[in-house]
Structures are given as structure tokens and as C-alpha cells.
Amino acid sequence: DTFFPAGDIVLNLPMIERQAKEWSVAPDEELRRVLVHGILHLAGHTHTSSDFTEEPMLRLQETILGTLKERIY
Fold first, then answer.
1. How far apart are alpha carbons 68 and 66 in whole angstroms?
2. Cβ atoms within 10 A of the Cβ of 34, count?
3. pTM (two decimals)
4. Helix (H) or strand (E) holding 28
């Protein structure tokens, strides 16, 4: 077994709901986005802006989200 604690992901559900409204997406879609985002940070990825067209990490995040099934929880 290969297991190592990479860190923690803390979910702020009211913030996720606000962001979902701001981005006009369903709350469960925004939850998936925040989870993938957190996992990428724990894996060592970083970004300096929120530009989804320029930031490699954010492009990877959206690629991953596009491959996930509708529900992952």
C-alpha cells in the first residue's frame, strides 16, 4: 500500500453556493470544481491568477472535470 497524507481540503459550503450563483453553475458542479482544485494544489500545482485560458493548472482542472461522471460523491 502506498499512502501518504498530502494535506487537508476544507470545504466552505456557503462560499461554494455563492460561487455557483456567481458563475451560473449548479452547486454540485462548483463542489466538484473546488474538490478537483484542492486536490491539484495538494499534488503541487499552483496558479497566479484565475484566468482559465492562461493558467495551466486551471486548464488541467477543467479537463479533469470534463472527464468525471456527473456525480462523484
1. 6
2. 20
3. 0.84
4. helix 27-42
